[in-house]
Amino acid sequence: METVANKYITVAYELYVTEDGERDLVEKATAERPFQFITGLGTTLEAFEDQIRDLAVGEKFEFTIPFAEGYGEYDEEHVLDLPRQIFEIDGHFDSERIYEGNVVPLMDSEGHRINGTVVEVKDDTVVMDMNHPLAGDDLTFIGEVIENRAATNAEIEGMVNMMSGEGGGCSCGSDGCGSDSCGDGGCGCGSGEKEKEEACGCGGNCGCGGH
To answer: For 104-120, what is each residue's pLDDT tens digit?
Structure first.
């Protein structure tokens, strides 16, 4: 059987984590606004892609990705006190985006875009949690394959451009650009709100099936 190097796949799913023995729904992508990605480009979690890649259209799935294969352990050292002034725009603190619980895009020293969650706003500093919101959680996906076919060269090129920042807000694939929920301050894939899409890391749907 010939193996297709890059597949264009869309899925509808619900993503659950377990809190205190109870399943908690944290993200949902519907058939109308599915999670879409192209295999082989590194835009989704490898463990997620491995489970979905060879499923047929209409096939249902349920699987759990342990946190070690998802977003890793929660690391207290990734909770940082950052100078308040780096969140200023034209000398004024950006209170519209920098508030407790919101997810905001930041840049590391090497120019890579990373996302952080605002933990607390203090007089001189802002406490930021740089762990992924799902760090330490096992991820349970329940859903159905909507589409699974060979990706076109144009689709691959478009995804690569979005991953490199040339395509604007949503680079769904680790950005299904269609997920409806990822928390209030988190994902806005498919919402058209650029800040939310950037915060989501859109390039992996809500960042959950993706990075």
So the answer is: 988 777 777 888 999 99
